[in-house]
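Researcher: Let's do a round of design. I'm pasting the structure tokens now; please hold your answer until I've finished.
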């Protein structure tokens, strides 16, 4: 039986994946495949190189607290308190996403910040050479389709997958422009299935669909709300293909609140622990002779999708 974990996008919320991985590692639950989108692709890439969750946590925490924010001329953040300069940056980012840039341009921040993170924590290698097979999702903004990467520069691919539209510029790979994969497959369960996984565990940290207290005051906000509803429903359909879904209680937190690092990790641990019994029970069922026989028969009579996979990968 082949097992996969799908690590979803969500900006800072994706740090909860670290807590999820800690619990799974402690219970000796390993994976044959890893898929990732956006910030989930950064953590997924590190895990695919067989770095421990503890090392991933140390590496990213060191970067976010000691390097990233100093490059933004921000004070060093401590504990879970958001300093004034951090609030200012987050407020400006939100205003940019809502209203755009008065000076023009296609991004609030330059690629240098995100690229520095990727180049600092991820080695210069081909994605095909990770110790655990890894697939990364990005959005082709020229045709609106999902791009699943399994070969090419790991750094460049992860950079494309994590480039939030409007916040970071698109990334050019082989003369095609790509941006954040969360717009086509926020938690890439379907990609794990295409990889050949029999059992897929999803760590889902996408934003929560909130109930509105009052009607939006203008047509633009109403249109944005309807678009979000449509995409949310689409993602709910996709994620149902997972065997188990872990949903940390952090969906009310903004994608930009990296200062809540410890909170994210702890909530990831809590959510994974609450699902442990379900995960173990389903893995037991998958390993019964009847289940193995059923999978064998299914593979024999399954339609040949090698051409589809070749097109995707």
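Researcher: That's everything. Go ahead.
Model: Designed sequence:
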């Amino acid at each position: 039986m082949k097992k996969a974990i799908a690590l979803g996008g969500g900006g800072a919320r994706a740090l909860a994946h670290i807590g999820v991985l800690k619990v799974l590692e402690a219970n000796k639950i390993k994976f044959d495949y890893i898929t990732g989108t956006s910030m989930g692709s950064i953590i997924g890439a590190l895990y695919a190189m067989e770095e421990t969750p503890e090392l991933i946590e140390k590496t990213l925490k060191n970067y976010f607290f000691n390097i990233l924010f100093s490059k933004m001329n921000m004070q060093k953040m401590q504990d879970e308190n958001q300093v004034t300069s951090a609030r200012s940056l987050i407020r400006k980012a939100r205003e940019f996403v809502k209203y755009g840039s008065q000076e023009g341009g296609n991004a609030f921040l330059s690629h240098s910040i995100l690229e520095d993170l990727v180049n600092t924590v991820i080695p210069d290698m081909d994605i095909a050479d990770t110790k655990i097979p890894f697939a990364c999702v990005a959005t082709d903004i020229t045709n609106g389709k999902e791009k699943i990467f399994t070969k090419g520069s790991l750094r460049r691919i992860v950079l494309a997958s994590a480039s939030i539209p409007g916040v970071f510029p698109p990334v050019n790979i082989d003369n095609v422009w790509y941006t954040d994969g969360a717009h086509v497959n926020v938690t890439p369960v379907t990609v794990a299935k295409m990889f050949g996984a029999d059992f897929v565990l999803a760590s889902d940290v996408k934003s929560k669909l909130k109930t509105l207290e009052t009607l939006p005051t203008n047509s633009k906000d109403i249109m944005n709300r309807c678009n979000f509803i449509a995409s949310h429903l689409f993602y709910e359909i996709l994620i149902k293909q997972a065997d188990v879904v872990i949903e940390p209680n952090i969906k009310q937190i903004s994608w930009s609140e990296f200062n809540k690092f410890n909170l994210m990790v702890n909530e990831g641990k809590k959510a994974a622990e609450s699902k442990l019994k379900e995960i173990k029970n389903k893995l037991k069922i998958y390993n019964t002779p009847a289940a193995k026989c059923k999978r064998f028969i299914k593979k024999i009579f399954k339609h040949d999708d090698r051409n589809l996979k070749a097109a995707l990968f």
